[in-house]
Amino acid sequence: MAIRKAIIPETVFSRLKNIKSAPVLSEDKASTRTKKEGSSLSSSPVSSQRSQIIVGVDEAGRGPVLGPMVMAALAFKEEEIQKLAWLGVKDSKQLSSEVREDLFERLREVVHDFRVEVIEPDAIDLSLSESNLNWLEADTSSRMVSELAPDKAIIDCPSVNIESYKKYFHDKIPPPLHDSIVLVVEHKADVNHLVVSAASIVAKVMRDRWIDRLKREIGIDFGSGYTSDPKTQRFLAAHHDKFPGLFRTRWQSYKRIEEAKRQKSLGDFEGK
Fold it and tell me: pLDDT over 90 for what percent of the chain?
């Protein structure tokens, strides 16, 4: 299955050493592979003994009816992880948007390597026609982890069946990494592990910036994209057929709007 992806542009995160305020994603970078960055991102001195590399993986935007889901995998040297606590890193849901933006910038002091993938609504719809959202997450995050090739990866598990998800994830890791990597797959990993909390912050900031860009492009403030948001509810009802690439058409909330429209059209026809 082809998944549409997007990178973090160089001006946003990959040139972390040189930036102060990262701009919104540029449009010409969309739908391309995640840019690889090497250990030059690390601020730690070179050691004669190889550092253990720990990766945390999390997502943002799994549930909304519109906009992308963003997945982030951040790699850290084990001895650098304590710095995340000193910076005040927590699960992104426990932080204000202002604090997330600040931490996004300050993570440049600690991160060793990273991958980010932006999965757009049409790719999410396609995945649901072939499997489910859990396996889409596993396919994407296992690929990012494989590229980073860490000693250990900690994954925030979206499935109720942790063992099944972990096995599926592990089976996607190619040799020789498959035999050496330590996988930790658990619920609430974004709360319990700093490396996953850091990934959750990056994913959330990138999704928020992506959503802000979409609002500017169409000239409408549609809120957060979640159906609990009144702005999103009104936008979905009024514009679901005007911006087809923006919505996840397999979401029940979208299907209900489509069905209501069909019923109204049928009623208008019968009334003539």
Answer: 68
Q: Is the pLDDT of residue 60 over 70?
A: yes
CATH of domain 10-216: 3.30.420.10
What's at 145, amino acid-wise?
Answer: V
CA distance 142 to 6: 17
Strands 113-119 and 69-77, sheet pairing: antiparallel
Does pTM surpass 0.85? no
Cα–Cα distances in angstroms (integers) from residue 233 to residues 211, 236, 248, in the given order: 16, 5, 14
Q: pLDDT-based confidence at 48, cuts 50/70/90?
A: low
> At residue 33, what is the residue type?
R
Could you tell me which residues come within 8 angstroms of residue 202 by beta carbon, excluding any fewer than 6 positions away? 13, 72, 74, 104, 107, 114, 116
Residue predicted with more confidence, 258 or 167: 167
How many whole angstroms separate alpha carbon 168 and alpha carbon 15?
34
Q: What is the pLDDT of residue 113?
A: 97
Q: Is 177 exposed, middle or buried (0-12, 13-18, 19+ CB in 10 A)?
A: middle
Domain(s) labelled CATH 3.30.420.10 in the chain stretch across 10-216
- Which residues contact residue 227 at a Cβ distance below 8 angstroms, ignoring those fewer than 6 apart? 64, 65, 233, 236, 253
Contact status, residue 151 vs residue 182, Cβ threshold 8 Å:
yes
Cβ-based neighbours of 48, under 8 Å, separated by 6 or more = none
Helices (H), the chain: 82-87, 97-106, 121-130, 133-148, 162-171, 177-180, 189-192, 194-218, 230-239, 252-270
